Amino acid sequence: MATDDHTLKAFDTDIGELRGLIAEMGGLAEQAVGAAMAALKNHDLDAAATIVEGDKRIDALESEVERLAVRLIALRAPMANDLREVVAALKIAGVVERIGDYAKNIARRVPLIDDHSDIEPLSVLPAMATMATQMVTDVLDAFAARDADAAVRVCIQDRAVDDFYNSLFRVLVTYMMENPRSIGQVAHLLFIAKNLERVGDHATNVAEMVYYAATGNHMAERERGRLAE
C-alpha cells in the first residue's frame, strides 16, 4: 500500500511539473505576442530582435514537456483521466510553441514597416492582439482548472477574433486600392493580422484538447468561418 501511495505521489508531482511547464510556455508566448505588437507600434527594432531571440526559450520548454510526457507514459502507465491529461499537455505544448512562432513572425516584420507609418488601420491591430492573447490566457486557465465550460467559452471568443480579422482584411484591401503606394506596407500588416487570427485559432485548438482531457468527449463541431489558408 505504501508503494502505491508513493507511486501516486510521484505521479502527482510529475503532473504538477507538466502543468507548470505548460503554464510557463503559455505565459511566455502570450507576453511575446503583446511585446511584438508594442515593438510594432513603437517601431522598436531592438525589442523586436529580443522577441525573435526569446522564442528559443519557448522551443526549449516544448522539448522539456515532450521528455516529461514520454517519461510519464513509459514509467507511470497512466490510465483514463490521467492519460488524457498527459496526452493533452503534449499536444498543447506543440500548439503553444506555434503561438510563440506567430509572435516571432510579427516581430520580424517590424523592421520592414516604416517608422511613424500613417496607415490608419495600423492603429486597430493592437485591439485584435488583445482579443487573441486574452483567449490564450483563458484557455491556459481552463487547462490548469480542467474546466470544460471555460474551454467552450474560449471557442465562442474565437468567432469575435475571426470577425475582427475579416473586417480588417476588407479595410486593408480597400486602403491598398485607394493608396497604391502603400501596397508593400499594408501587405505586411495583412500578414500580421493573419498571424493574430491564427493565435486565436490555436487557442481554440487548445480549448478542444482541454475539453477532451476534462470530459473524455470531443467538443461538438463548430462553424468558425475560418478563411482558407
Q: Could you describe the 3D structure shown?
A:
This protein is mostly helical. It has helices at 2-42, 45-76, 80-109, 125-145, 148-178, 183-215. Helices cover 82% and strands 0% of the residues. The chain is built from six helices and no strands. The longest helix is centred in the N-terminal third of the chain and has 41 residues, at 2-42. Residues 223-229 have low confidence and may be disordered. The chain has a single domain (2-215), classed as Methane Monooxygenase Hydroxylase, Chain G, domain 1, CATH 1.20.58.
SSE blueprint and pairings:
Elements: H1 2-42, H2 45-76, H3 80-109, H4 125-145, H5 148-178, H6 183-215
The CATH topology is given as: Methane Monooxygenase Hydroxylase, Chain G, domain 1
CATH domain class name: Mainly Alpha
* SSE succession: HHHHHH
| Unreliable sequence segments | 223-229
Per CATH, which architecture? Up-down Bundle
As a whole number of angstroms, the C-alpha radius of gyration is 20 Å
Q: Specify the overall morphology.
A: elongated
Write a concise synopsis of the structure shown.
The protein has helices spanning 2-42, 45-76, 80-109, 125-145, 148-178, 183-215. With 229 residues, it is mainly α. It has one domain: Phosphate transport system protein phou homolog 2, domain 2 (Methane Monooxygenase Hydroxylase, Chain G, domain 1).
Q: Notable features of this structure?
A:
Methane Monooxygenase Hydroxylase, Chain G, domain 1; mainly alpha; 6 helices; 229 residues; elongated; disordered C terminus
